[in-house]
Amino acid sequence: MTNAPMIDLRGTTKKYDDGPPALAGVTLSVAAGECVAILGHSGSGKSTLLNLIAGLDKPSSGTVTVDGTRVDQLGEAGSAKYRRASIGMIFQFFNLLDDLTVLDNVLIPAQLAGMSKGEARRRAVELLGTLGIDRHAKAYPQRLSGGERQRVAVARALMNSPALLLADEPTGALDSSSAEDVRRLLLDLNADGQTILLVTHDVQLAATTAHRIIELVDGAVARDVVTSGRDAAVAVRTTLTRPAGEVR
Ligand SMILES: Nc1ncnc2c1ncn2[C@@H]1O[C@H](COP(=O)(O)OP(=O)(O)O)[C@@H](O)[C@H]1O
Ligand SMILES: [Mg+2]
Questions:
Q1: Which residue ranges make up each domain of the chain?
Q2: Phi and psi for 238 in degrees, rounded to 5?
Q3: 39, 200, 204, 241 — which has fewest CB within 10 A?
Q4: Which residue out of 13, 14, 16 has the highest number of ligand 1 atoms within 8 Å of its CB and is therefore the one to mutate?
Q5: How many other β-carbons are positioned within 10 Å of the β-carbon of residue 173?
Q6: Closest ligand to 217 CA?
Q7: Which CATH code is given to the segment(s) 7-240?
């Protein structure tokens, strides 16, 4: 790969029918290997930003380039193919299919991408092992704890070795100990080189997981700070502390 950024947004704006724009001229660049948190209160445009990067929605103006692909110019089929090949996503509520076993959930992206059955199975079992949930391979998601379900979702997201992992409030539905497990998992993945974009309203999660925090206010970048390292979480938290109510 070249030195081109993993994510590059230029003057990216998203307007819905009425009201102010959900994203208002966002320009930002994320390099391969970064773990960046997108921080902002509810309604600040975080999910809109994520959807544009994932090719799930189109900007009203401006460009979205990911891993060299002009995502904003893709058609429906191209955009689905791009997501399968380049993007892994995890969500607050896991989005697993309850009618499928853990293993079958993890296999879905490989099947959609046309990976051979044997290879897909090997990779899925290996990922479940790495994530410490291989003993649940034949269980159904509803039998698992929240933390275990999020691990399954992470395995599924990693199935096609995505260039970019997008996480939308991945610890939002978890108890504090499971949330800490998932946070450490993200740290491990990033240490192995995985580029991660973490969307959250949780200042502490952002400060202790990402090494860079981009804060959105009313759809615009209000702050873009490279932290002095995740170990210096306390210092970061101090610089990010704002008047009560502004950022949760
Ligand atoms: N499909 C939509 N139609 C109209 N307005 C929307 C739509 N999606 C989001 N918005 C608006 O865009 C703004 C940003 O929303 P969103 O990106 O979901 O924020 P966040 O994820 O930070 O909570 C909000 O004002 C929201 O109401
Ligand atoms: Mg959101």
A1: 7-240
A2: -65, -45
A3: 241
A4: 16
A5: 16
A6: 1
A7: 3.40.50.300
